[in-house]
Amino acid sequence: MDYLVSITKVERTIEDAVIKSIQLVGGMESIVNKGDKIYLKPNFVAPRDSSTGVTTDFEIIRVVAEEVRRCGGTPILFETPAIEFEKERVYDVLGVYDFVHKHQILFLNDFEDLLKVPVPKGKVLKSIKIPRILQNAKIINLPKLKTHVSAKMTCGMKNLIGLLPDSEKRKVHIRGVHASIADICKVLHPVLTVVDAITCLEGDGPTYGDQVDLGLIVSGKDMASVDKICSQIISLPWEAVKYIRLYNADIKRGQLRVVGEALENINVRFKIPYKSAFYHMSTRITHILDVLFSRIFYQHFNQFLYSTGYIGTNPKIIKDKCNKCGDCLEACPVGGVLNIVTCEVNYNNCIRCLNCYSACGQQALIVKGVSRPER
Ligand code: SF4
Ligand code: SF4
Among the atoms of ligand 2, which is closest to the Cα of residue 352? Predict the structure, then answer.
């Protein structure tokens, strides 16, 4: 195993930086053989585009897909959002279908044919169900570097959860996030990880934190090594990220080496979120209740709670501050959600993308909820 990690600044174009970053760890030729199917796993966790720091930049996906083709492989995009978001809405808002159509990339996101795979030395998961096509598949992991309310940080290792069906995603929250991530990483082994650390997220990630412009691409063939370096980039010692620590204890590792930008020249300190034991317990309980709820009502319990408008991250219009300019209406990808006359929000239809919040220049739109951005 190669424990080499490259850090590359985006100076001219994202394309230049991605290509250089991959070359520094051996080049795409060292991974892709003629005729290979290569599964690209970006982060499309929520309907919030890459400029918000939440999802992977399409330009990175495009460049990696072209590099795969240059080496004779076929790129296939595979990704699903978090279970509290409606899959098709997320793809629509992000523009995934337009992107794959324009660049002729096959896109998969269904879980019809699953395979139960044993987890070697699994701590909390003795087996996991994965899409059959991913068994022994070559995966290129394209995560976003962010802080995370439950896991402290999300990068390569945590990004793999998006490859699993909802039942397994739910298990991660019920059995314990850290041990589950470490277990999943014993089954799925990306051949390359290329991190979007261009616009990142600090604070209440992975969805509602605050943007940080780092302008970096971080790459490596060993996903855990990449995560260790990324945690150091955001000034979070990797030993403080329990899932990395757990995984590291199980897998014997050699010496980590960094090429490209020197770590000591990157001087950033991300706000690491802290949530109470009550918050973590509530998250666990809602996922336990979801097992039955989703079977009876064909909707996830969290989606139902958020649609009430009383729980979860939701926008709210402050009547006294609203000048009825309509900018929020223009930014909203869903019709019939905002009413700027009555200043009401129809939480049943709101997909919680917060485009309205970003568009309002009057500070008349605020965000309610335990996880939310700081303006
Ligand atoms: S953008 Fe802000 S000020 Fe303008 S209508 Fe919407 S809430 Fe009111
Ligand atoms: S109201 Fe705001 S958060 Fe809800 S869908 Fe519209 S833009 Fe997104």
Answer: 3
